[in-house]
Amino acid sequence: MGSSANGDRTASSNGVSVDRGVDFANYFCTYGFLYHQKEMLCDRVRMDAYFNAIFENKEHFHGKTVLDVGTGSGILAIWSAKAGAKKVYAVEATKMSDHARELVKANNLQDVVEVIEGSMEDVTLPEKGYLTSNLVTLVLGVFLGRFIMIEITFHNIMCVMAFPKSSGFVRYPSHARMWVAPIRSGLGDQKTSDYESSIHDWECFLNETKTYYGVDMSVLTKPFCEEQRKYYLQTSLWNNLHPHQVIGIPAIIKEIDCLTVSVSEILNVRADVSSSITVEKTFLCGFAGWFDVHFRGSRENPARNEIELTTAPSVDNGTHWGQQVFLLHPPLRVSEGDVMAVSFSMNRSKENHRLLEVDLGCEARQSSGKHLRPFNQRFYLE
């Protein structure tokens, strides 16, 4: 068994032909470096949530068989073993599996934790019947990327979602929610300045090319401007926001039951929500998106102590996930009591299955009843 970097092509659920070698290079390889694992392991919010979820609900692990999808360094698999699991299969697509195997051995848990290198659709677990009620949990959610969806892997999620759910089956985390909220930020001015600087550089380039080389390249100005606008003004940004930057009531755009959700539900998110501005006389500079997850167990096998992990804007350092920021150009002046009617749609790009396309629209109405300038913008997330 090995990582799926052999150039095979697989059709994803949105009809895109995926080169798995390229997929590995663009996605999985990052997780093969210890610096990246360290970044996640230093995220105390993340680590505390998983630690508490496991050790405050040991009955979900004691004497059970656990499958850890995307084990990385193997720490969650080790915790599962320490919580009493009789067997833990820790699946990892990258060479980080070698480090995980060494870490397991150093903690004298090699008789319980078995590290398997490969992606979920390729590996064969040694234990027959591992999908019976004896399988208790998928410790690491396979779609916990920034704003949940960004790091999703088609191969893994389709494989995991296809697991039969018996009465004893529990998935950790068990539930998730996606949020959006209006924000104020200086990032919009910065990105607009970067865009204008890029266009100015292009104009200088045109003049120099025509003067020194006798070629008029102005016919390419329109596609260049479109390219730069997409890069500077339509690409969603990652940022750790302060709570004071949130200027309206957050709204849930998606609730996910990880045990019953279908692939199509995850890959196509649509919502119409509203949010009231809570700050007097400010600028609506855009919207922020984040997620939280819950470790509740299942209806038949509920957690004794429910744990929440949130990536909302924090007064502390936040999490390594941060928030996704969708900037409005130009910003819109709003005031307390104004109501934002927000339409949100997120789908996979047909050209690049790791690229998300977000259509975000907003109609603002003042408390007096006056309608403010509406906007509808497409954003790109990768």
UniProtKB/TrEMBL annotation:
One GO cellular component term: nucleus
SUPFAM superfamilies attached to this UniProt entry: S-adenosyl-L-methionine-dependent methyltransferases (SSF53335)
The keyword S-adenosyl-L-methionine is assigned to this record: yes
Keywords: Methyltransferase, S-adenosyl-L-methionine, Transferase
GO MF annotation: an example: protein-arginine N-methyltransferase activity
GO BP, one annotated term: methylation
InterPro entries, sorted: Arg_MeTrfase (IPR025799), PRMT_dom (IPR055135), SAM-dependent_MTases_sf (IPR029063)
A matching Pfam family: PrmA
All copies of domain Protein arginine N-methyltransferase, residue ranges: 193-361
Listed CDD domains: AdoMet_MTases
Name of the protein in its database record: Protein arginine N-methyltransferase domain-containing protein
Organism: Tetracentron sinense (Spur-leaf)
